[in-house]
Specification:
heterodimer; A: mainly alpha; MetI-like fold; 3 domains; two-stranded antiparallel ribbon; 66% helix; B: MetI-like fold
Chain lengths: 316, 315
């Protein structure tokens, strides 16, 4: 496909393409380096992770992952020698540093909290969002534009400003530091996105399908269930992923409103410390585990991404 | 209001179709479908907002719930508007918002323009570039703290390697001059792809025949860029600026983990001040007043901007 075969007189020349491609690839590589560095750090030993100059080539180790999932105590070599043989790779690695595993760390429960809260709130937001979007899309709702703007405007509030009264309200209701409280809050934040995105998707489904179904004897509800929903699955899936990513990544509310039992991973990861400061390989390991689902979702979503980040304002 | 909704819906339904409907009527259904969302938002967003407005007129402190609450009238608002620290925080926020938006718009638009040359493999590299904006700002802030560590951090190492500054002197986060730029760099790294993606949509929305016509009229490339590309992509650029502006005005998580507002208060943006006042000093009434002021500011700016945006779109 060189310029001579292109039908258009305005197609970029191959030189322009080469220069553009080089700059874009250079930018992409530079912008991905921090992530690759975190990934590499998660497989370094603590001394390697803080070596000067920074080590690009190193002996990979899973010590970071061991430290992420366990808590350890320092012991005398005599005590460690008096123990039986090490019961696994992590045990062995830890003993080399004159420590023994004391028990599991809080990472796994925090990670599970993140899963429960993200999936719970996504389900609720998409459920409510689908119903409202259908309502706004198909029925003449008075003040529809004002209501839609109201729904969107709840997103303009700074999270800390919302957190002050929510903190007091949850304290009264006994919802502080509970998964239910967080699910309700994230649902409320995400539902605005869900309504706006899904309204766009449902608007694109021709009304004729439902009308035909209703003439065939379906009720409105049956028509919604059997003709609209199946056609909206792509939109619903894309919306769900956006809600999931928001809830998964959220930090401000989680940091202020949860402290223990319902704490999610984002406020937990920065608190992972080792002896004498942050345990960077363990932090990097936690970060890596936390980011992998997002990478997968980004790739799945790449065609809908634009729509999602602009609340459906820009469609391709 | 809801009754009226139902009436209108009933009137809007064509007669023969309405007869076909069994079970729940359309008006019932519209009500049933929309009200749960509105109720949830009223409970979790609007009720707390009114509570915050009430608190903003009092001296309430959340860590002393049993103390008698006094009504202060507008005293909290007066104190905030006269508070030197608050103005410094607003200035820090303005500096952060201005530079991040400027850098992200310039770099983002340039990248989009280059990607629009449609070189081989552009879709793959675009996806790679998009990754940072999908990540958790808190986790991003935390791991950039590692990259910024003097000596051992990759960023500091590269800077000292390139510039020859001794590695222990590259202290992005503890240097008063550099810390504001440290947060601007991270935000730009993270959110340039966002601006780029929206600009790309703008560039792709320009029909090719306009360029073909310009080519026939022998307009130079430079002229084509200024007379066609930029004006037609402008509504999209403004949309990106609007979203980024609102988000960065509210910025909390990334900055909180990267610098926590420090050193001193050099990177203390409005949300960090708010958090310190509300959840560290426990001046709940005072911080509620500040929260209301911030909310009104965001809302007002966004409204003005949306109006401007619509004007540009109509042109």
């Amino acid at each position: 496909m060189s310029l001579t075969t292109a039908h258009s007189v305005v197609a970029p020349s191959s030189n322009a393409k080469l220069i553009a491609g080089t700059i874009i690839i250079a930018y992409a590589l530079i912008s991905i380096v921090p992530l690759l560095w975190i990934f590499a750090t998660s497989f370094k030993t603590p001394p390697d992770s803080i070596a000067y100059p920074p080590k690009i080539i190193f002996q990979p180790s899973i010590e970071g992952y061991c430290n992420l999932f366990t808590t350890r105590t320092r012991q005398t070599p005599e005590y460690i020698n008096s123990l039986g043989p090490a019961t696994g790779f992590c045990d062995e690695t830890v003993r080399k540093r004159n420590m023994v595993i004391a028990g599991p760390s809080n990472f796994l429960p925090r990670f599970v909290n993140s899963l429960i809260i993200a999936f719970g709130s996504t389900f609720c937001a998409v459920f409510l969002g689908t119903l409202s979007a259908y309502g706004f899309s198909r029925f003449k709702v008075p003040l529809a534009d004002d209501l839609l703007f109201f729904i969107l405007s709840t997103r303009f509030m700074p999270p800390i400003a919302v957190a002050i009264p929510i903190y007091l309200m949850y304290r009264e209701l006994g919802l502080s530091d509970t998964a239910l409280g967080m699910i309700l809050l994230y649902t409320a934040v995400n539902v605005s996105l869900a309504v706006w995105l899904l309204k766009g998707f449902i608007d694109e489904i021709p009304r004729e399908y439902e009308e035909a179904a209703m003439i065939d004897g379906y009720t409105r509800l049956q028509a919604f269930w059997r003709t609209v929903l199946p056609q909206a699955t792509t939109g619903i899936a894309a919306t769900a992923i956006f809600c999931l990513i928001f809830a998964w990544n959220e930090y401000a509310f989680a940091a202020l409103l949860t402290s223990g039992t319902a704490q999610t991973a984002p406020p937990f990861i920065p608190t992972i410390i080792g002896e004498g400061g942050q345990d960077w390989p363990a932090v990097a390991a936690g970060t890596t585990i936390f980011l992998v689902p997002i990478l997968v979702f980004t790739i799945l979503l790449r065609k809908q991404l634009l729509r999602g980040i602009t609340f459906g304002a820009v469609r391709k | 209001m809801l009754d009226r909704t139902a009436d209108n819906v009933a009137r809007a339904t064509p007669e023969p179709l309405a007869k076909k409907i069994r079970g729940i009527s359309d008006k019932g259904l519209a009500w049933l479908f929309i009200s749960p969302t509105i109720l949830l938002l009223l409970a979790i967003n609007i009720f707390p907002l009114f509570w915050a407005i009430y608190l903003s007129f009092t001296n309430y402190r959340a860590n002393r719930p049993n103390e008698v609450v006094k009504n202060l009238g507008l005293a909290n608002y007066q104190r905030i508007l006269g508070d030197h620290d608050i103005w410094i925080a607003m200035q820090t926020t303005a500096h952060f918002v201005f530079w991040t938006i400027l850098l992200q718009t310039v770099i983002g638009f340039t990248l989009a323009w280059l990607i629009d040359r449609k070189f081989r493999g552009h879709a793959f590299w675009t996806t790679i570039i998009l990754v940072p904006m999908m990540l958790s700002p808190a986790v991003v802030g935390n791991f950039w703290r590692f990259l910024y560590e003097p000596q051992i951090g990759l960023f500091s190492y590269v800077i000292s390697f390139v510039t020859g500054i001794p590695p222990t002197n590259v202290q992005m986060l503890s240097n008063v001059e550099l810390a504001p730029w440290a947060i601007i760099i991270v935000d730009t790294w993270m959110w340039t792809p966002y601006v780029m993606l929206i600009c790309l949509a703008g560039l792709r929305s320009i029909p090719e025949y306009i360029y073909e016509a310009a080519e026939v009229d022998r307009a130079s490339n430079w002229r084509q860029f200024w007379s066609i590309t930029l004006p037609m992509a402008l509504p999209f650029i403004m949309l990106a600026v609007l979203f980024r502006g609102i988000e960065n005005f509210k910025m909390f998580d990334m900055v909180n983990l990267l610098t926590g507002g420090g050193p001193g208060s050099t990177t203390e943006v409005a949300s960090i001040t708010l958090k310190r006042q509300a959840f560290e000093s426990w001046r709940t009434g005072y911080s509620s007043a500040f929260a209301i002021i911030l909310f009104v500011a965001v809302f007002g700016l966004a409204n003005i901007y949306v109006k401007a945006l619509n004007k540009v779109k109509q042109r």
